[in-house]
Design brief:
heterodimer; A: alpha/beta; 10 strands; B: mainly alpha; two-stranded antiparallel sheet; ABC_Transporter_VariousFunc (chain A); ABC_transporter-like_ATP-bd (chain A); ATP-binding (chain A)
Chain lengths: 241, 495
Amino acid sequence: MAVEPVLALGRVVKQFGGRTALSGLDLTLRAGEVYALLGPNGAGKTTTINLILGFLKADAGEVRVCRIDAGTDPIAARARTAYIPEQVALYPGQSGLENLRYFATLAGLAIDRAEAETHLAAAGLAPEAWSRPASGYSKGMRQKVGIAIALARKTRLLLLDEPTSGLDPSAAAAFSGTVRAAAERGTAVLMATHDLYRVREMADRVGVLAGGRVAEEIDPRRYAHTDLERLYIARLSGAVT
Amino acid sequence: MSQSRFLPLLRTELRLILRERLTWAILAALQVALCLGGHTGAQRVAGERAAIAQASDDAARSLRDAKEAAARYAVPRAMTVNYWQDPTHAFGYMHYFLAAYAVKPPTPLAVLSAGQSEIQPAVMKTSFGFSTVFEDTAYELGSSAALRLGPFDLAFVLIYLVPLAVIAIAGTRLAAEQDAGILRLIAAQPVHPRIVAGAKFGAAALILVAAVIGGTALALALAGWRDLPPGWATTLALLAAALCAYVVLWVAACALAASLWRGAVASLTILVLTWACVTVVLPALLGLAVDKLAPPPSRIAAIDASRQVQDAFYRGDEAAKVTAAWLTARLPGTTDRPDLRETPQINRLARDAFYETTLAPYRAGMQARAEGAAAWSARLALLSPATTLALTLDTAAGTDAARHAAFLASASEYRRSLRAFFEPRILAQELRPAAVCAGCPARLDFDAYDAVPRFPTVIAADAARWQAALSALTLWGVALALAGLAFRRFAIWSV
């Protein structure tokens, strides 16, 4: 019996005015899988994430999260989706702990302080930072609170938008570990990124987004980092070998 | 709206707002402003009460002096008093002893608003023998729709500063999150934007309503306001409802501005411009409209008419003719008493009646204008929330134009009633003079001092109650309409 996909995008078309952002995007993601969506700026990565979160409606095709149409029932789709944006912005006057509890409340969860601390610890935020105002947090620390919010949600799908951009190597490595751990717990992970090094480290599959669709899917473990980069550039320039 | 999601969010938003230093700074400044406003109002009311007490003392003293003089002159004594020194002479008493005042006492809620009180007197001495159209010679009626930057009273704080406090606290809710990038993370949660907006602006509304109502109550208490006479509790409750609506209305305006998704700077710009339009521009236009709809007659023309009527009376033998006609109309059987026409008292009474009749159209025009302007002001005030609340506070404080117009009409009526009281007594004394006793200095026998009509002071609670009810209904209607518009616009996130 085939496992039901957590995320299924079928022939998705999205246009903005006269510009086509997505022209028949197909993408399927199963539980425990980490899928990296590669593509240059403007390739449609963020549009894809916005469609999954229900911020945009597809002009054609369908976007389903756990069989729920994200276009018609975005709130139900978001209930099964956690999202970490490229720049995690928090309430600066509130601590990491308070931010986490606030976003959990938004998601309809009532988590106590102990549970919130567990998630912050799992996300790798140092305990001395938990109660400090987020105004003093580095990008990496804010990212960790974003991860903690996602972990607290315990969703089946995790969306990451340029998750390692701006992180120092150790923070990026820790982040990779956290994502892999989530995948091992059965979470499906879709990340839009440029970071080929982390892609190779984290992703099970890589989709190269070009011309508004997945031009090719690659198994990153079959390639060394430099080969992966060469292959990615070649796909974008159309010089397929 | 999911209640299970909304209430925890509302609690969280309340905590968030109350933890902001800016919130406390704004609320503290607002509280200080309310207390200062209350203090200004209390001082004004104390001044009015002192003026009224002084008028009352003056009336009592003049009555006491008259009675003492009447008793002194009622025993035989070798002295002569003139009629203007003699309280037993009805004419002399009316013109030279009587101190009669028309009084507009402050209402129980007078502390709230100075309204028109700074340009319109609460006490006017009733006088006779002047050819004037005006009961109050030094004051000009104003339009209550034309909100002016008047004294720093509670009404000023509530009408002008409370909306600014609301904008400062609620004006950047959601818009600031949008600018900071937090909105994207909020929108990614499984929650409808209406629930988030409802919690954010609902929390702001709860805090601001509590601050404004509590602050006003504290300001009133510090201003020495304690008791509320029967019939005013409902008015006070309706006023509180109108005030709540005014705050909620501005919070709803903030929500509507946020729903445009233009960011904090644009939201604040839109809201401040709206504030300027609602509290300054629109009331000024309404004031101009009132002047167009109920144009004020020329006071200069009325003053000129007053002078002309004096000239006319004293031109040629006009005075004699007027006096004869007046006397014949009142005492038809006195044609054989030409001496009566020569008496200065009869001559003065006839002259005053001539002035009154000739200037009646000007007086009626002024009164009609005052009433018309007040009526148009009441209607047009509903076009702006600021003028709606201003008129309500003025009416509750008893400092509105309509009450003053009624007060002027009452003062005129009072003067006429005093004349009607004295005229027959003066005529009777002129026809059949009778001394109190032989050899007394007292010339005549007038002693009805305690029967002289008193000015009927009125503090009508009805007008204030109805105006407060109308205001509460109107303001809640506008507030709910704005909230409804914002609710519709928050159908989707804009990220």
